[in-house]
Amino acid sequence: MEQTIAPLALLRAVDTEAAADHIRRANRILVMGCSGGGKSTLSQKIAARFGLTYVSIDRDVLWLPGWVQRDKLEQRAIIAAKVQGERWIMDGTNPSTFDIRLPCTDFVIWVRMPRLLCIWGAISRWIKWMGRTRPEMAPGCIEKIDWEFLRFIWTFEGKFTPRVLAGLAQHGPDVPVLQLTSRRQMSELLDLLAKSA
């Protein structure tokens, strides 16, 4: 069964053109979504276009070398420090830290690609970076893929959507949200941003 899009009434949802206007003015942007959906690539392109500091939750917060997770309290302390920055774009979902991140966020981009596309994205990324660490990962985290990770991607939408919606409602009810559900929409957004003065 394919994903269902959350009712827009539950979000302060915007369309692509309105999103481009928000992004041009935003100082702090949160990009979230499933692994393999393209959120890191999108975040880095927006960061480069508008001079925002790129913060990768995977690289800067979650992982230590060798795929060892940092302690939860340390993760929260790092995020609390990062969100104090004046201008950033932060790539990572983790609804358990929405209470720290969303109150500081001007705009949210929710990358909700179909799960088969996310699976393909993760596999093609693994092939590209096999034996190496990609730039948005912590040093010493060699690119890998396994059944557990693929299962995480396959079940992501069902498991995380209720938590994301609850977190947005509780910690960021006034933060505008763009949902990107296709590569075409993502390209349209980037094209609009490329035309920005």
TrEMBL record:
SUPFAM superfamilies: P-loop containing nucleoside triphosphate hydrolases. This is Adenylate kinase. It comes from the Bacteria. Signal peptide: none annotated. InterPro entries: Cytidylate_Kinase-2 (IPR052922), P-loop_NTPase (IPR027417). One of its GO terms (molecular function) is kinase activity. Keywords: Kinase, Transferase. It comes from Rhizobium hainanense. Gene3D superfamilies: P-loop containing nucleotide triphosphate hydrolases.
